[in-house]
Write a structure and sequence with these properties.
This is Flavin reductase. It comes from Mesobacillus campisalis. InterPro entries: Flavin_Rdtase-like_dom (IPR002563), NADH-dep_flavin_reductase (IPR050268), Split_barrel_FMN-bd (IPR012349). This protein is α+β, with helices and mostly antiparallel strands. Helices cover 15% and strands 45% of the residues. It has one domain: Electron Transport, Fmn-binding Protein, Chain A (Pnp Oxidase, Chain A, Roll), CATH 2.30.110. Strand 7 and strand 8 form a beta hairpin.
Length: 160
């Protein structure tokens, strides 16, 4: 199967956009990702998927913690910074939630302790036990078919 065909098919699944953050050796690291999902309510678990060559992989393995920051539709620039799409160096100010670095203004900041790690293909899946959550109002930043998107205004549907 062709890699492009697979990527195009996966791109038809609209996702939210997150920035995964962690802190190792006193330095904050972050990466844009859309490979995130909730796993369990009891206990509260989430999973993130990190590519084998991503710099943040070893940092999460070292710290044993990470935060998932679900971005708002006003945070496309933050997504682009952490995706490496903006090349010039920009200073990013982080907030803190339960001592972990988080992206201010994110719709949700979810801090986690790594409870399991699984290597699958060219990615490592980290299962995170949720330790804290902070929520903000707003609309999500979306990604679909390789482009950033936002929600359209809801239309009232009248059934006859």
């Amino acid at each position: 199967m062709d890699d492009r065909l697979f990527r195009n098919a996966m791109g038809t699944f609209a996702t939210g956009v997150t920035v995964i953050t962690t802190e190792a050796e006193g330095e904050v690291h972050g990466m844009t990702a859309n490979a995130f999902m909730s796993v369990s309510l009891d206990p509260k678990l989430v999973v993130i998927s990190i590519k084998e060559n991503a710099r943040i992989l070893s940092k999460i393995q070292e710290s044993k913690t990470f935060a998932v920051n679900i971005l708002s539709d006003e945070q496309q620039e933050e997504s682009m910074i952490f995706a490496g799409q903006i090349k010039e160096k920009r200073k990013v100010a982080f907030g803190r939630l339960s001592g972990q670095p988080v992206v201010p203004g994110a719709l949700a900041q979810i801090t986690c302790e790594v409870s399991a790690e699984h290597v699958e293909g060219d990615h490592t899946l980290f299962i995170g036990k949720v330790t804290d959550i902070h929520l903000e109002d707003g609309n999500p930043l979306l990604f679909y078919k390789g482009r950033y998107r936002s929600l359209a205004e809801e239309k009232e549907v009248v059934s006859k």
